Predict the 3D structure of the following.
Amino acid sequence: MHVTTIDHYSPPPGGLMRWTVDSDNSVAMPSSVPLSFNQQFHLGTVESGSVWLAAAFDVDGPIDTGALEHAYRLLISRHGTLHSAFVRRGDRIDREIHDPAQLILRPAKTVVTSTSHELRALLHDALDTACHPFDYPAFLLAAIDRPDRSTVICGFDHVHVDGYSMSIIVDDLHQLYDRCRREPDGTDVDALPMAGSFVDYCAAESDAVAIGLRDPRMRAWLDFFDEHDKTPPSFPLDLGLPLGQTAPQAVDLRDLLDAEATATFELFCRSNGATVFAGLLAAMARCVRELGGGPQMSMLFPLHTRRSEQWRGAVGWFTTNAPLTVVATDDFIDSVQRTGPALRTALSLGEVPVAQVLDAMGGLNHRRGDIFMVSFIDYRNLPGSSAHEEIGAQHISNVTATDDTQFWISRTGRGLSLRTRYPGTPAARSVIVEFLDRLGQFLAEINSLQPVDRAGTSLMG
C-alpha cells in the first residue's frame, strides 16, 4: 500500500467515471445506536474542512462499467456504516439508516482528461464535494478509464473509515469486481466472508463497562494528563506557529528503510526487547533531543480496536488513542530497551475508552486544533496485502490546514515509509525537513552497526 495525499497523487490521464447514489426512494429509518466517540468529535468540528480518505487500485484493460457498478452495490450492502446518514437537529446529531436495497446507483457523464494535473483537480473537487458527512452518501464511487490499465478509486468521509479500512475496501472491491466480470449474473455479497457492521460496534461501544478511577489503567491516563495540564502534547520542536493559528498543511513523503534494511533494524529492536515501532519512536525522540526539543517526547498515538475476529473485515472508524512518553537517553540501546516496555504498557491503556478518560478528568484543555501523533501500520498483516504491489494499491488523504505535526509510518514488503503532515510555514518546513533528514541518517547509522550472519540472525546483543 502506497500512502500519499491528493496533492501528490499523479495518475495517468483518462476518463473520470462517477456514480451518484440516489436515495430518494429510500426511507431513512431513525436509529437508536449512538454515534461512536470518534464520530461525535468529528461531526462536531466538520466545519473546519472536508476530511476524507480514498482508496485506489489498478485493473487490466478498460473499466467494465456493469461489473464495477455491481461491485459498488455489493460493497455498500456489505458494510453497515455505508448505510448510515447523519442529521443535525439543534445541538443533537442523530443517526439514520438507509436500506441498501432501495438505493439506486446512477452513472454520471464520463469526463475525459488529457493531463494528470487536470485529472487530479477534477478528482479532488469531486471528493471534496461528495465526502461530507451531513450529505448522504458521504462517499464517492469513481474510476479512471483507460484502454490498457484503469484505476478504481473511491473516497469516504472520515466518519465512515479509518486507515485500516482502506485496505479492506481495496481487497473487497478487487475481489468483487473480478467476480462480477467473470460471473455477472451470479455474484452476490455472500461471495466474500462475513464482515461485521461498524454500527453494531458503535452500539457495543456505548454499552462498554465503565472503568473505575482505581483501575491502574485509568490512573495512568490521568497521571499522563496531570503532567501535561490536561493538554494533548504538541510536537516538541518549535514550528513557529502561535497558538490559535493554523496554516495550510505541507506534506513530506519519503522512504525510511528498504525491505532488507527494515529486517536488519527489526532484528536489532527485537534483540533489545522492542518492536520496530518502538525502535522508530526511540529514534525520533533521539533526533528531537539533538535538535533541542528536550529528552522526552510525549504523545497520543492511534491504535485500532479490531480486537476480535468479528471486526477484522469490517469497514469503519475502529481507532482509539493511547498516551506514551518516550525518553531519549545518551545510550540509544538503553532508549530502545525502555521504549519497548513503555509501548506495551501504553497499548494496554488503549483498552480504556477515551470518552471515559475525558469524563474522569473533566474534559481537555485544547490549546491546538490538531494533535501531535505517530501512527504505525504494518500493511503486510492487513486483508488483501499480498496483492497490493501487483494492483498498485494506494491510500490517498485530503489536504487541509493544521497547527501541529502528524507522522504516519507504513511497513510494506518494500520496507518502511513515512508520510508527515505539518503546518506549511517556512519555519515549520525548515524544522521538519531537518528532523526527517536526521532521522533517516540516524536509522542508516544504526543499521550500519548491525552485523548480520547469513542466516539473518543479529550478532549484536
Q: What stands out?
A: DSSP finds twelve helices and 18 strands in the chain. The two ends are 33 Å apart (CA to CA).
